[in-house]
Amino acid sequence: MDRSPQALQALLKELEPVEGLDLLTATADLERYSRDAYDYSPVLEPLFRDCRAQLVVRPHSVDAVVAVTAACARARIPLTLRGSGTGNYGQCVPLEGGVVMLMGELRAVREIDGATGVVEVECGCLLKDLDRQLADQGRQLRLMPSTWRSASVGGFIAGGSGGIGSVRWGFLRDPGHLLGLEVVTLEPQPRVLHLKATEAEPLNHAYGTNGIITALTLSTAARVDWHQVSVDCPDWSTAVTLAQRCQQAAVELFLCTVLDRRIVAGLPAWSGPDQGCHRVLLLVGPDGVGTVHRLASSLGATVQDLGPEASHQGNGLRELSWNHTTLHMRQQDPSWTYLQMLLPQPELPLMESLSERWGDDLLWHLEGVRHAGGSRLAALPLVRWQGKDALEELIASCRELGAVIFNPHVITVEDGGLGIVDGEQVAAKRVHDPAGLLNPGKLKGWPA
Ligand SMILES: Cc1cc2nc3c(=O)[nH]c(=O)nc-3n(C[C@H](O)[C@H](O)[C@H](O)COP(=O)(O)OP(=O)(O)OC[C@H]3O[C@@H](n4cnc5c(N)ncnc54)[C@H](O)[C@@H]3O)c2cc1C
Hints:
By secondary structure, the protein is of the alpha+beta class. It is about 30% helix and about 25% strand. The protein starts with a helix and ends in a 16-residue tail after the last helix.
């Protein structure tokens, strides 16, 4: 790898004449585009704080992407891709400096198949823009992060995992969501490849380490006019039981969030009055609202029907779910951080045991998800930062009690997942990035 100022100067000279390519060299741009939301993790913050791109480029076409890629490959300069930079583990932070490539100008929706709803879309398209265009055809996204207004579709596939919709559609890596990719290889003579679902899979959640995605083919769902329902529950076990009963009922759900009453108290005022209760937030199909009422009243919970979602406004239940809960709590008090896990069944014993030890420093936030075809609860608990040792003790206790941890305080793809090197991800890197220049340091299976 060559990160010398001379190599950078030569690269700049080579890229200046390229059509449809912006070159950004101002210090403020180099800083701004070398960061994401990694400060949610006090472990990662000091590790990423000083990482800087040496050059930022913004291509407006696939041809311009190819020109940048060829130049970086010839000069052996690291290249890191950036969608909207909303990742929260530093996925798009250039650990080794080099070039950061902003993918946001490649944003056309190329085709929506009228019969199947399958969409082909360029990587930089914002999820909100894609969802709006799908709505015109009676379709919607199956899965989206709570950052769906600002995040790009390419960044979601490469860096995200699931979110709103996971209660029905599981996770991004479940077969059937990603149907194909257009990929540019990082070679002196780059190739533009069209990968079918099986070949595309290793690039799904690989942090852009094993191929540059320029377009994606995704399945979609029939559009539903989601209704927002908020249910206040007198105790935690009622809230958990209600969420589970809703997940198991014959109603269509798009979101099922369970919040501890201390989190409800920390949410913005627009989220509704705090009655001192634990809360279940649901996006439910219009014909399921009555059933939710029935299930809630049988448990002694109080339903507030907020009516159809006006999702253009940015203050709906979506913005109180997934990591937006963490965002709101951190706005109140930045000493909150968080964890991510799939809870074992039954769920309550683990939560009770850990709450006993952690008290007010561990607040439960659950999300209903579909996992391996069944209804499960994932947890994104708020954790008061008390140092790395305390966090590691908590992670170890969760594992001992049967939770599967997806650690948001680590750098590599593997450590954030199940800790296992995925041979197919590494094999794809060998084919698409033989010199190992893409987002170096993030794929553990690739030797340094
Ligand atoms: C408040 C908050 C809430 C969040 N909620 C969720 C959630 O519910 N679910 C979830 O999964 N995530 C969530 N996230 C994380 C993040 O917002 C999402 O994963 C989002 O989809 C990332 O999109 P982005 O465009 O910002 O990607 P970026 O952050 O720019 O990039 C993410 C990764 O993708 C790579 N990448 C970007 N573009 C390309 C490309 N064209 N080709 C190859 N690789 C590429 C980058 O190098 C990086 O490794 C949340 C984050 C925050 C701060």
